[in-house]
Amino acid sequence: MQYLDYPPVWLLAALGLVWGETLLAPQLVPMAWAQMPGTALVVVAIVLFAAAAWEFWRARSTIIPHQTPQRLITGGVFALSRNPIYLADVVLLVGLSLRWGAVSGLVLAPVLALILQRRFILDEEARIHASFGQAADAYFKRTRRWL
Fold it and tell me: DSSP per residue over 84-110, as a string?
């Protein structure tokens, strides 16, 4: 299980369930009204992920969960959310669910957020606090976990 316990695996599992719904019960949500907002959310998710990855690259810090970061990143999209990549995962799930006309993704989005928080975010925050102490505390106070 440890080899599969990464956020993209959880996201792909949720997307697989959503895609399965489209095969079993197509268009439970009328797709016409959901196409544009769904596409917009997919674009937002891609931009969030790319902006966060850029900040990791600039800081020369690890983007891999379960590892201790070398730097405390507080700028760019990390000034808006402490977890922009996880936020992007949830936004992508909602966006693709709307594009595909699948209700299950709207139900799975908070479930995915909870899984990400419990399996990854809380441990990452503990490692960040252990590594960066008061600087991490100050960052946690001024920046929300999600948005």
Answer: HHHHHHHHHHHHHHHHHT-SHHHHHHH
